[in-house]
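Notes from hallway chat w/ T.B., transcribed later so I don't forget. T.B. wanted the structure written out for a chain they're using in a teaching module, and asked if we could keep both sequence and structure tokens in one place. Agreed to drop them here.
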Amino acid sequence: QVQPVESGGGLVQAGGSLRLSCTRSGRTFSSYGMGWFRQAPGKEHEFVAAVSPSGDSTYYADSVKGRFTISRDNAKSTVYLQMNNLKPEDTAVYYCARRRSLWGMGGPQSDEYTGWGQGTQVTVSS
């Protein structure tokens, strides 16, 4: 199974910004919805955002709505997560994953996705 490569994490002060990237190899990238999830220590996977195969539709968790933006560049087989106005509670390992089913945009359930990467750490200091 093709695994994505996430990057862009780091340490940032509250109120700062980071841009995460997730690149997947393969010719079918543009046929699948993509999602970002995160996992803080001692907590379960939490849905963050999803984007449709074309990039025209997006869906966000209430906790990040208005601060985070998901987008994709199908020519580069890459999905992005622009994170602004970061808060300490955003601290987590962030993962991207591909929707299991062709076409359509995924929802917030992690079992709808597959092909999880190693994740990238985001730490927000207060």
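Follow-up for T.B.: The chain has a mean pLDDT of 94. Might be a good example for the class.
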